[in-house]
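TA notes, week 10

Several of you asked for a full example with nothing omitted. So below is the full record: structure tokens for the whole chain, then the designed sequence directly under it. When grading your own attempts, check the secondary structure regions first.
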């Protein structure tokens, strides 16, 4: 059942049927292949149907199926089954729909589309309030921080093909997260990972998106958000993923934290929600700094993701802004001086490990408490 109109670059398939219809223009809808999708019309609405047994599929639409510009249907959550109603479309516009199987890539988790409350009113952090409602389209995220062995594999491939990096990266062990990589390194590494996998790179050094970013610390880095190569998460994507489907909680699992749940610096006398024990996590405070833990050591959150609190801070795409943008799929300020870091690390306290905890730093500096993970579009 894997036949379709075209095959995407990341080996996902366009499934079953493509539906073209001229909505409310007096032109009969055109059903390309009716093996899965069907259509009815009711007044000023068009309703798409498919079997309720179809699960883990994404409904996408475009006005031109010959151009790679499919987008998830919004604001309805994109992983859907059953039916979808189109109301009051633009008169005369022919819209194409497809169901695409959401086969989760190895080592990644699916973050479903939907709205969530971004920020925190529990602890009064000035730049995490006021909270805002943010809609985030579905995406995939690495279940783990990029490990040192994973970094080396892509790094060696990239440097043999003309890429350069500010730092070669370090790791406490092959299965520990890579650290001492700056923001520019992570962005170039994402591009290399995409090309190594046969995907279209996301990052470019020109506004026309023709010059793939492979070298130098370019102040202006442009992202092609329509392709599904690997990239850094936006701040909104990171926080939605970290919360794991929970709402209003300090941490990915609830409102308190202990060193049995995360690799951070305990301080029970200062934070009532820190259950400790105090100091560095004794299980990993060996062999000198940094006191990182192996990726995936602690329990996963509701989306199957690990280390969203503690271990290493994580680079995000966004320039730092004192307030959240809100809205739909925000990408942060257009410019700035520092890039967002999220998640806390082995040396930070419980306050910094909260889902809403915000930090930022200069993009060309690498530290032993900063790493990253990748996301990609569907």
């Amino acid at each position: 059942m894997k036949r379709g109109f075209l095959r995407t670059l990341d080996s996902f398939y366009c499934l079953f049927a493509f539906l073209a219809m001229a909505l409310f223009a007096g032109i009969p809808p055109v059903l390309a292949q009716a093996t899965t999708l069907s259509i009815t019309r009711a007044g000023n609405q068009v309703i798409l149907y498919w079997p309720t047994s179809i699960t883990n599929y994404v409904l996408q639409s475009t006005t031109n199926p010959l151009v790679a510009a499919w987008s998830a249907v919004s604001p309805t959550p994109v992983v859907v089954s059953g039916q979808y109603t189109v109301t009051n479309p633009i008169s005369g516009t022919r819209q194409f729909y497809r169901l695409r199987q959401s086969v989760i890539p190895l080592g990644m988790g699916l973050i479903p589309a939907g709205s969530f409350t971004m920020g925190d009113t529990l602890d009064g952090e000035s730049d995490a309030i006021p909270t805002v409602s943010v809609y985030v389209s579905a995406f995939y995220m690495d279940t783990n921080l990029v490990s040192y062995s994973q970094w080396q594999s892509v790094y060696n491939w990239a440097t043999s093909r003309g890429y350069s990096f500010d730092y070669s990266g370090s790791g406490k062990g092959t299965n520990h997260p890579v650290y001492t990589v700056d923001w520019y390194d992570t962005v170039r590494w994402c591009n290399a990972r995409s090309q190594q996998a046969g995907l279209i790179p996301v990052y470019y050094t020109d506004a026309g998106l023709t010059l793939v970013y492979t070298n130098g610390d370019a102040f202006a880095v442009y992202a092609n958000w329509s392709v599904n190569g690997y990239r850094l998460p936006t701040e909104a994507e990171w926080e939605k993923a970290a919360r794991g489907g929970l709402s209003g909680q300090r941490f990915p699992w609830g409102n308190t934290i202990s060193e049995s749940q995360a690799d951070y610096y305990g301080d029970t006398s200062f934070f009532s929600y820190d259950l400790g024990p105090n100091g560095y996590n004794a299980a990993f405070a060996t062999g000198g700094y940094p006191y990182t833990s192996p990726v995936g050591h602690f329990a996963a959150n509701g989306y199957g993701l690990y280390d969203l609190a503690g271990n290493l801070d994580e680079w995000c795409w966004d320039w730092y802004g004192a307030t959240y943008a809100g809205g739909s799929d925000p990408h942060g300020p257009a410019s700035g001086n520092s890039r967002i870091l999220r998640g806390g690390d082995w040396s930070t306290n419980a306050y910094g490990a909260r889902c809403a905890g915000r930090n930022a730093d200069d993009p060309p500096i690498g530290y032993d408490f900063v790493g990253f993970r990748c996301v990609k579009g569907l």
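The chain has three helices and 22 strands. Use that as a sanity check on your answer.
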